[in-house]
Amino acid sequence: MTTLLHRAERTARQEGLAAGLAAALSALSERPALSGRGAAAAAPGPWAALPARDMPPGARVRTHPLADREEIVFVACPGPRPAGTPEQAEAARLIAAVRLGIVRRLLDEAVEHLSERTAGDEPLIRKQLITGAVADIIAEVELLREHALTGDDDPEALADLHNRLDDLGWQVAKLFGASGYIADHPARALYVSALVANVWTDRQQGGQAA
Amino acid sequence: MTELDARLRAVRDHAREAAEDLRARALSIDAEPHAMEQHLDSPAFAMIRESALPEEYRSASPAPALAGGDDPAGRGSCLESMVGVLELFRGDVGALLACPSPALAGVFVALLGDEEQKKRFYERVRTGRTWAFFAMTEPGRGSDATAMETRLERDGQGGWLLHGTKRYIGNGARGGIGVVFARTGPSPLHIRAALVELPASGWRAEPLDMVGLRGAALSEIRLDGVPVPGGMLLGEHLPATRRGIWGAVQTFNNMRMQVAAAAVGTAQAMAEYIARHRPGTPGTRRAVARAEAARSLVYEAAARIDRNPDRGYLSSAAKLGATRMAVETAHWAAAALGPAGLLDHPLLEKWTRDVCAFEFMDGTGNIQRLHVARGYQSGDADGR
Ligand SMILES: Cc1cc2nc3c(=O)[nH]c(=O)nc-3n(C[C@H](O)[C@H](O)[C@H](O)COP(=O)(O)OP(=O)(O)OC[C@H]3O[C@@H](n4cnc5c(N)ncnc54)[C@H](O)[C@@H]3O)c2cc1C
Known about the structure:
The structure holds 2 protein chains of 2 kinds. By secondary structure, chain A is mostly helical. Chain A has helices at residues 2-15, 17-29, 65-69, 86-116, 128-150, 155-174, 188-200; strands spanning 47-51, 61-62, 72-76, 118-119, 122-123. Chain A is 57% helix and 8% strand. In chain A, β4 and β5 form a beta hairpin. In chain A, α1 runs parallel beside α4 and α5 (128-150) packs antiparallel against α6. In chain A, 47% of the residues are buried. The mean pLDDT of chain A is 94. Chain B is an alpha+beta fold. Chain B has 3 domains: 6-125; 132-238, Butyryl-CoA Dehydrogenase, subunit A, domain 2; 244-382, Butyryl-CoA Dehydrogenase, subunit A, domain 3 (Up-down Bundle), CATH 1.20.140.10. Helix content of chain B is 48%, strand content 14%. In chain B, the strands form 2 sheets. Chain B has a 4-stranded antiparallel β-sheet, with no helix packed on it. In chain B, a hairpin with a 5-residue loop joins β2 (151-154) and β3 (160-170). The relative contact order of chain B is 0.11. Residues 64-75 of chain B have low confidence and may be disordered. The chains are: A mainly alpha, B alpha+beta. Flavin-adenine dinucleotide sits between chains B (134-137, 142-143, 168-170, 213, 216, 218, 357, 360-361, 364-366) and A (117, 119, 124, 127, 129-130, 174-175, 177-178, 181).
């Protein structure tokens, strides 16, 4: 499992969200319980988020303008959904690894952006409020990676992991200012990865975040 | 805690009706922010526009107490305007910002415009068919606006020519009239605002495709020698210190409260949505209580601005806290809907994108942090 999580994170960081998701779902679909049915069989809700290139032919699909640009589609999963299965717990961990990879990818980009952008005569990256934010983000990445690796299958713990990833992604998005709020900006992957996690995780009972 | 008297409660109740109209248009405006023709005769839009016009430019009697009072633009006190606008934001923030109205530019023109400039501006926007823009931010200069690079150059005949690029400007590509900031020289006092009426040569504007708050129709504007007649620089009749940045700061003090109100209104809408669609969800009462607390702080900060318009400490604290609360509420609400809930509940999905905008508008979170810390250190936290 450790290797699979590392691979999903690394792929997302190096190649982006759709590639990271493909790596995660391909690992998931190897589970014996899903044999031959594809990763979408483990989806906890009525839709599964898949890389567009892996969409099964003839599947009923829903799209989203931002997800489209990340080449991710939502495929219908009809019928009653399984609840609390080990495959769903593994999916939650793998998707968390993908989200960590996206956070790393965009944090690198934000730091580069803020090193070039100045306020007064100083690059923004030297402002202490920003240094503090960058440090908090990367420390949280280290912690949440361990959470994904070592946590048990308890739904509340996995919900907490993704709730914290929602916040972590937002902390990174803020660093770009309004530029990261343009639909064509790479920071879009942070918004779409939250949408992907919303589809792949069941957090109804762990909804203690607010 | 600020108690609402009967008059303020009437303002709130009147706005609630208009909020329903905004809500009904929310998803269509988000999907196609530039297809506005079908919305322009909305009764809510008429109410919003009329209440932001000075009395002599209104075509109908204003909503009870949403207008009136002694503000130069004819609006009531800051508290009064917050009570009304917060309800409208609870309808839908994107739809409200899509309304053709004087908006931010109106606050600035009311402060710095002479009679001729006000006439030009209000005659255009009173029709309900003209959007107004307020162009400050540039691609290279956001929070550090006083370092803006857009220039006003003399044309040799008593007028000016505008050169530069503005970005993230609400209504930029669909606007008919508005304010553009630029510098005539190196110091902050050289930053001036021009009233620009379109069409104008050298003006090229394109819409930006945004993640959320798409009703605001953000745009990029290229200014390649846009002519500005000599009489169209705002604040010429005022002392040099009150011409450019001073007016912008006053305008932002007002606008920051609006953004805080937008955060509160949207958070309330999300909490109510979950209470209706997922009754019994853990965390609902907490989300409602947090939004209520933020609303109370917004009212308190507004009342404080009415007493002392130059002290922005509490309005910064309100914007900072309300924005954070709204984003946290959005994350909670998204999770509360259950797996794929965001796909099956597009209005909530839209709000989870919209709330992110508040972080960037009228001073980012970090800029508010700097204001709050400075205010605290100069004793404002003890100055209730
Ligand atoms: C929905 C929306 C509507 C808008 N409407 C308008 C409009 O109508 N007219 C207009 O002129 N502009 C408008 N803007 C632009 C807005 O004013 C800018 O986004 C804002 O000023 C921040 O600038 P920036 O985005 O370039 O971020 P930057 O200033 O580049 O900030 C990047 C990051 O650095 C941080 N930062 C910046 N300076 C400091 C500092 N000194 N210390 C610590 N941290 C710092 C920020 O908090 C942020 O995290 C709008 C933006 C949005 C999203």
